[in-house]
TrEMBL record:
<dbReference type="InterPro" id="IPR005935">
    <property type="entry name" value="Mev_decarb"/>
</dbReference>
<dbReference type="InterPro" id="IPR014721">
    <property type="entry name" value="Ribsml_uS5_D2-typ_fold_subgr"/>
</dbReference>
<feature type="domain" description="Diphosphomevalonate decarboxylase-like N-terminal">
    <location>
        <begin position="32"/>
        <end position="200"/>
    </location>
</feature>
<dbReference type="Pfam" id="PF18376">
    <property type="entry name" value="MDD_C"/>
</dbReference>
<dbReference type="InterPro" id="IPR020568">
    <property type="entry name" value="Ribosomal_Su5_D2-typ_SF"/>
</dbReference>
<dbReference type="GO" id="GO:0019287">
    <property type="term" value="P:isopentenyl diphosphate biosynthetic process, mevalonate pathway"/>
</dbReference>
<keyword id="KW-0443">Lipid metabolism</keyword>
<keyword id="KW-0067">ATP-binding</keyword>
<keyword id="KW-0547">Nucleotide-binding</keyword>
<keyword id="KW-0444">Lipid biosynthesis</keyword>
<dbReference type="Pfam" id="PF22700">
    <property type="entry name" value="MVD-like_N"/>
</dbReference>
<dbReference type="GO" id="GO:0005524">
    <property type="term" value="F:ATP binding"/>
</dbReference>
<dbReference type="InterPro" id="IPR053859">
    <property type="entry name" value="MVD-like_N"/>
</dbReference>
<feature type="domain" description="Mvd1 C-terminal">
    <location>
        <begin position="212"/>
        <end position="344"/>
    </location>
</feature>
<dbReference type="GO" id="GO:0004163">
    <property type="term" value="F:diphosphomevalonate decarboxylase activity"/>
</dbReference>
<protein>
    <recommendedName>
        <fullName>diphosphomevalonate decarboxylase</fullName>
        <ecNumber>4.1.1.33</ecNumber>
    </recommendedName>
</protein>
<dbReference type="GO" id="GO:0005829">
    <property type="term" value="C:cytosol"/>
</dbReference>
Length: 362
């Protein structure tokens, strides 16, 4: 990768030395789609490497994606014992045009340090700019698409040409669920026991034609990040060990359902697994409850639609929105039905999404 006409001026904008003072040593852009877990990842065995306690299964979703540009710059000034902090060049990050600082920037910088050390680019800083394509609000912006796109763009900008498996392992270091967004369609994340053995891979979903109806009830900021909630659950929920045992069984059944094209079985496992995960949260101390009254109304509406003979199964993550697993052919009618049964909810339909996309930069 080299400097390119796509590169934009992403100046630091905080009064420090402009990042444009440094020579560009690499630029790349990439996009990734979000994913929704059918069998969830909830709890880490290793916090630093982000190794999960159990394997998980997800569907990558069309129409919920992140596009990210990364530019690495040389920092001659940083090498020469600069005493004045204001003169030190730092990484910069903008999300949807807004400059970021604090935790968001620290998390991205920490991730870029991994890429820099892999590529021997320790003496560089990066300008990162990211855009999310979400149909409405911020409630669905996901760390999965964000870190998959960042891993792809940053590794390529740093001159690393990683295999999809290596890219999945790298994305995992940013956010666990991001390792699954490297691939399209149905994806399995093998928990593994080490950095080398914990990666995602696509699985053959050709006997199914899945879609997800996202039912959004709130676009507000989460009361507690999934990272913190997960940590508290592992540390304090008396149900946690049972949850891990049930995940192994759910993975087995879900894989069988995919192999035989049994949507009914996959749906049952999906809904039960999500309820199990939320049970561990509710029994954490202090308890964690992401559900809002409208979430419960939607869960019940999904049961009602099913009772009326249409295949639809719910799943929820670390927030109040409900995602509904359906056959792609039923997606629009289920979406209409949900709008009717739960007035005021916002609904969007997502088909199976795609693997990470790199942009040609030169
Ligand atoms: C509920 O991947 O966001 O969505 O690894 O700490 O970044 P970190 O967590 P994250 O957790 C996702 C949890 C989940 C379930 C899932 O996607 O499997």
């Amino acid at each position: 990768a080299g400097s390119s006409s796509h590169a934009r001026n992403l100046g630091a904008g905080d009064g420090r030395r402009s990042s444009d003072d440094g020579a560009c040593v690499g630029f790349a852009a990439a996009s990734a789609d979000a994913n929704i877990a059918l069998v969830k990842y909830w709890g880490k065995a290793d916090e630093r490497l982000i190794l999960p306690r159990s394997s998980s299964l997800s569907l990558t979703l069309d129409g919920l994606s992140t596009r990210t540009e990364v530019r690495f710059l040389e920092t001659p000034g940083n090498d020469a014992q600069v005493k004045d902090d204001d003169l030190v060049m730092r990484d910069t990050l903008t999300i949807d045009g807004k400059p970021q600082s604090g935790r968001a920037l620290e998390r991205v910088s920490g991730f870029l340090d991994i890429v820099r050390s892999m590529a021997g680019l320790e003496g560089t800083v990066a300008n990162v700019a990211s855009w999310n394509t979400v149909p409405y609000g911020a409630g669905l912006a996901s760390s999965a698409s964000a870190f998959a796109a960042l891993a792809a763009a940053a590794s390529r900008a740093a001159g690393l040409w990683l295999s999809p498996r290596e890219l999945s392992r790298l994305a995992r270091r940013g956010s666990g669920s991001a390792c699954r967004s490297v691939f399209g369609g149905l994806v399995r994340w093998n928990a593994g026991v080490s950095d080398e053995t914990s990666y995602a891979e696509p699985i053959d979903g050709s006997k199914l034609n899945l879609a997800i109806v996202v039912v959004s009830v709130s676009e507000g900021v989460k009361p507690l990040s999934s990272r913190e909630a997960m940590e508290r659950t592992v540390a304090t929920s008396p149900l946690y060990d049972a949850w891990i045992r049930s995940c192994a069984k759910d993975m087995e059944e879900a894989m069988k359902a995919v192999e035989y094209g049994d949507l009914e079985l996959l749906g049952r496992v999906t809904e039960a697994n999500s309820m199990g995960m939320h049970s561990t949260m509710m029994t954490a101390r202090p308890p964690i409850l992401y559900w809002l009254p409208q979430s419960v109304a939607i869960l019940r509406a999904v049961q009602g639609i099913r009772a009326d003979g249409v295949g639809a199964w719910s799943t929820m993550d670390a927030g109040p929105n409900v995602k509904v697993l359906v056959d792609a052919g039923d997606a629009l009618s289920v979406a209409d039905e949900l709008k009717e049964r739960v007035p005021g909810c916002k609904v969007s339909v997502h088909m199976s999404g795609h693997a990470v996309r790199f942009e040609e930069c030169d």
